[in-house]
Amino acid sequence: MTALYPTRIDLLGNPLTGGFADLATPLVFGSPVQVGPKPISATDWTSDNWGEIGLACPFGGAVYQYDPTAGFMQGSIVPTAPPYNGGIFVSTSEQVLVCWGSTTQLALGIQRDPLLVKWSTVGDFTNFVPLSTDQAGSFRIPRGTQLRGGMALPNQNLLWTELDCWAMNYLGPPFVFGFNQIGIGAGLVGSHAAQGLRGNVYWMGPSNFYVFQAGGISVLQCPVWDFVFQNLNTAFQQNVRAMPNTPFNECGWFFPSSSSVTGECDSYVKFNITEEGGPWDYGPINSLQRSAWMDQSILGMPIGANAGGIIYQHETTNDADGQPLNASFTTGYFYIGEGEDFAFVDQILPDFRWGFFGGAQTAQIMLTFNVTNYPGDTPVTYGPFSVTQATEFISTRFRGRQMSITAQSSDLGSFWRLGKVRYRWAPAGRR
User: Fold this and answer.
1) Residues near 277 by Cβ (< 8 Å), separated by ≥ 6?
2) Does the pTM of the predicted model rise above 0.70?
3) CATH 2.130.10.10: does it fit domain 7-322?
4) Are 386 and 393 in contact (CB under 8 A)?
5) Per-residue confidence at 39, pLDDT binned at 50, 70, 90?
6) Whole-angstrom Cα distance, residue 130 to residue 119?
7) Can you spell out the DSSP letters for 118-161?
8) Angle 313-316-321 from CA coordinates, rounded to 5°
């Protein structure tokens, strides 16, 4: 079984104990070091790269740039960019810096318009002045109360309000970009709740999950919808974080549950985009706390950080930071027989992958069977039964209509994968 649980590291292999560094606080390997002006307060940042130049924007703030070729120095404000923004991204259809939720000029000054999109001219992220000789411009989304996110795709851009999804397509002069409402009711829950994976875009809205693919936008069927949307702390829904995991073809989201008093993400939900039926699973409260996430990159496997400022690299080991990982999952309930009759089960045939390909097949797994007579009943548990590769079958004696299976392990270095567990049963009456 592959583990989402990480090993704590920094780039030297040690835990990072400092807070998040901003562009005024360069991060020296090991811990953040104060240089120059005081740090910018921690907040929601959006960022992108302009070639080797890093661009970043704190929510409600200015655009900052950091040029690594300029020597050891802090990031600086781009003075000609909009002074206040909801966020930024770089359009790849043409090299253009897009700012959303940006400022508008008024008779007595400026103010941030939460629905205004502004973009720079092609090839120059410092020029936002619309002239006949350049391609800078702006557009105000006509529906909703605020823009909540934006993302560049290979051939177009996406923008989200709390209500809808909009396409931002490059047209060239004189209009430069065209805007089309492509997803009515498919809004975004927060600025970091969208993710791209395998050519599609997946996001979490205020009440559903969505996917944008070749056929357009559609709602994702989520069998654990109740756990997420009836358990979401809506006062802090802007803290939702997308959790793409490219090596394992998984889309996921961290979110604050109703038990999260501080609003930090304390639960997660995810699904596999390649397996038939897109199986979903979730982590209950405090199972994995992350406030930031980055997918697989040149640094290796996905990297996440918690609210305490500790950075973790995931999918690097089968253990929990050097200790055995207490892995566990429980399937949904299924009918043992046809469902109308009770069924008597006297034998279980376990089927697992017990180790890495070509490696020792030494995983030890505990199986528990949760049996009910009717939906909603309190289950009667049988087990746990210890199984290894040498276990041919488990002798059981239980009677019921429905069953779910809990698989657990806690051995060091264990890798295992679920196969097709089978069982022997016989009808046992209807009462």
Assistant:
1) none
2) yes
3) yes
4) no
5) low
6) 9
7) EEPBTTBTT-----TTS--EEEE--SSS-EEEEEE-SS-EEEEE
8) 75
Would you call the peptide bond into 130 cis, given omega within 30 degrees of 0 as the criterion?
A: no
Look-up of token digits 């391609």: 135
Contact (CB, 8 A) for 405 and 394: no
Say which DSSP state 300 is in: B
Which residue reads 């109703």 in tokens? 258
Q: Which residue type, as a one-letter code, is found at position 239?
A: N
Strands 53-58 and 137-140: unpaired
Place 338 in a pLDDT band, splitting at 50, 70 and 90: confident
Structure confidence by residue, pLDDT tens digits, 89-114: 999 988 999 999 999 877 667 889 99
Query: pLDDT digits over 50-97, tens only?
Result: 999 999 999 999 999 999 887 767 889 999 999 999 999 999 988 999
Q: Which secondary-structure segment (H or E) carries 48?
A: strand 45-50
Residue 385, Cβ density class (10 Å: 0-12 exposed, 13-18 middle, ≥19 buried): middle
DSSP state, residue 297: B
**How far apart, in whole angstroms, are the C-alpha atoms of residue 202 and residue 222?**
13
Element (H, E) at 226: helix 225-229
The alpha carbon torsion through 375, 377, 380, 386 (nearest 10 deg) reads: 40
DSSP states along 334-385: EESSSSSS-EEEEEEE--EE-SSTTS-----EEEEEEEESSTTPPPEEEEEE
Residue 4 DSSP SS3: coil
pLDDT tens per residue, range 357-409: 989 999 999 999 999 999 889 999 999 999 999 999 999 999 999 999 999 99
Domain spans, the chain: 7-322, 328-427
How many helices (DSSP H) and strands (DSSP E) are in the chain? Answer: 1, 38
Q: How far apart are CA 6 and CA 117, in angstroms?
A: 38
Instruction: Order the strands of the 394-400 sheet from edge to edge.
Output: 394-400, 343-349, 422-427
d(CA 422, CA 351): 8
